[in-house]
Amino acid sequence: MEKKIAFEACISEWKIVFRVLHANLARELELMDAEVFAEMQRQLHRAAQAQGVDVTDHEAWDAWLGLDDGLPYERHGHRGPAN
């Protein structure tokens, strides 16, 4: 079994890391199946929901993440919520 690491960071920093990883999904396909990426998305969904964001509303989720760039949802390569 591979050793796991864990650490804490503020939500704003996790959002930055998620945006960078998300922007590179097309180039780094392994990220789509990486448990760390899925877990990061789950934790961010929980944080967003705690702040009243409907994570199934793609525009609201993107805006909360800071991806509110006017691009259609599909252009961001979303696969849907991973709650």
Describe the structure.
The structure is a single chain. The two termini are 25 Å apart. Mean pLDDT is 84; it is low at 78-83. The chain is globular, with a radius of gyration of 13 Å. Helix 1 (11-23) packs across helix 3. The chain has one domain (11-76). The chain has helices at 11-23, 30-33, 35-50, 58-65. It is an all-alpha fold and 83 residues long.
What is this entry, summarized?
With 83 residues, the protein is mainly α. The chain contains 4 helices and no strands. It has one domain.
What's the number of structural domains? 1
The helix fraction, in percent, is 40-55%
- What is the overall silhouette? globular
Helix and strand content put the structural class at mainly alpha
Q: How many H/I helices? A: 4
Radius of gyration, Cα only, in angstroms?
13 Å
Average the pLDDT over all residues and give the rounded result.
Answer: 84
Gap between N and C termini: 25 Å
Strand residue percentage = under 5%
Largest sheet: none
Order of helices and strands: HHHH
Describe this protein with a few key phrases.
83 residues; mainly alpha; 4 helices; disordered C terminus
SSE order and pairing:
Elements: H1 11-23, H2 30-33, H3 35-50, H4 58-65
Helix pairs in contact: 1-3
